[in-house]
Hints:
Blueprint: E1 2-7, E2 25-26, E3 29-33, E4 42-46, E5 53-57, E6 62-65, H1 77-80, E7 85-88, E8 98-100, H2 113-117, E9 126-133, H3 139-155, E10 159-164, E11 179-185, H4 197-203, E12 207-211, E13 226-227, H5 233-244, H6 249-252, H7 254-268, H8 270-284, E14 291-295, H9 298-318
Parallel strand pairs: 1-3, 1-4, 4-6, 6-7, 7-8, 9-10, 9-11, 11-12, 12-13
Antiparallel strand pairs: 2-3, 5-14
Helix pairs in contact: 7-8
Amino acid sequence: MINVKLTFPFPDWPILRQTPNGSGTWENYQFFVNQEIEECDYWVVFDQLLQKEQTKCSPENIIFITGEPPTIKTYNNNFLKQFATIITCQRNITHPHVIYSQQGHPWFVGKTYDELQSNLSIQKTKLLSIITSDKLFTDGHKKRYEFAMKLKDYFGDAIDLYGRGIKDFNDKWEVLAPYKYSIAIENLVLEDWLTEKLPDCFLAETFPFYYGCPNVGSYFQSNSFQLIDINDFKSSIKLIEEKIFNSSHYSSCQHSLIDSKNRYLANYSFFALIANTINKLSKSKISKSPRQIQINSEDVYLNNFKNKIKDKLKFLIKT
Length: 319
């Protein structure tokens, strides 16, 4: 087995449910999540470190996966220099080895990998849902919220509206699985910024009307989703109505939905993304001998920068 140390910044999140039997094993890779181990073959960090960590590893085999788009978070260049490979959607990152890709955001539906692979019998008793939030930090958040409110006004009881601060739910499965259709809206339009919003629909075998990642067609079959533009309400309504009021549409696309579901689980889910990336890297790179490696949290570099600014200001004041 190839041992992979995984630093994951959300210790309470059940990330191992995304592996067979919750084992932390994916193909010939064994993942050690937030565990102190003496040595590993690869070390993967997702989004951030809460504190400095160290282990013995080849410096060529250290990978960082960004967790946010550039409108939410940018990453310090000195922090990124600690990694040999960066997986990201952020085109502004300067690094010698960047892989532009979706980032394998963990799914939010409350099902395990094994449950999702077991050909669940999903009863579609409802028509259309949309999940939004009263989180209005960015223009993308605001546009999503406003579009959702307009849809509710237009469709009335034909659409069920869910989300934080609106109509809360315990498990995203509950607000996707019973529905034939759902509307999935990213908070940013950017190539390879593909979060869990679309895959969660596929996992529930719910046909999504999607706004977001422009190159989504390079990941999933185009007939397993419908692109909409939330900036064009009239056009979006037309596309939605054409499908939800067509009695044969959902049954005609079920095979495509299942294909996209299986494609996501096998290729684009969190552990699949890491394993597939390492498979490619192992063919193109010669790993150096392992040595003791320490990775610092980004705060170290941000604090160093702030201290340099303070010292510079003190010097200018004195002179």
